[in-house]
Amino acid sequence: MSLLPRLRLAFARRPWLYWLLIGLCAAVVWLDVSAARARVTDARHRWGTTRRVWVASAAIAPGAPVIARAHDYPVAMLPSSAVTSLPANAIASHAVSLGEVLVVSDLAGASTVPAGWVVFAVPLDGAPTLLPGDHVSIFGSGQLWCSGVVHALAGERADVAVPPDCAASVSAQLALDAVVLAAAS
């Protein structure tokens, strides 16, 4: 008689052997899982302290609003300029990939303009109250021409950064003195 039929017969005559084998298998799996969990915990402790930073949760184009989520990483893995608090109305100064840890240079602030964008001085006649970093819609001659971002404010004008593909039309509307800014959300 071969081995497999003998084992089946032994298990059929003595069910406690079957359950003993099942219990041994469960114990081996449980020990393996707990050992793996202990190795993970040990590795986590060896990395040291963690810090909460912001990570891009989608690919972000230059000048687009930053879409990010907070995530904890070991300090040893983080760049020194990692963003620990995301400002309101944050915009990307250049393209950011999905899952990338945000650093200060990824965010366009009062001193940076998204790569390749053009900055125009636009009069604030009839414009709502604006702050640097606010997104605006640029209207001229009664129609929407472009969307941009307020770069800076200076007296009666706002420096507005616009993508290069609409810079010519904004320039033409400024020459006609027909530009109106509207706050965009």
Number of helices: 3
In round numbers, the mean pLDDT is 85
**Poorly predicted runs:** none
Classification by helices and strands: alpha+beta
Indicate the percent of residues in helices: 25-40%
Strand order of the main beta sheet, please? 5-8-7-6-9
Shape: elongated
Number of strands: 9
Q: What oligomeric state best describes the polypeptide chains here?
A: single chain
Radius of gyration: 31 Å
Q: Report the major sheet.
A: 5 strands, antiparallel
- Distance between termini? 80 Å
Number of domains: 3
Order of helices and strands: HHEEEEEEEEHE
User: Strand percentage, roughly?
Assistant: 25-35%
Write a brief caption for the model.
The protein has 185 residues and is of the alpha+beta class.
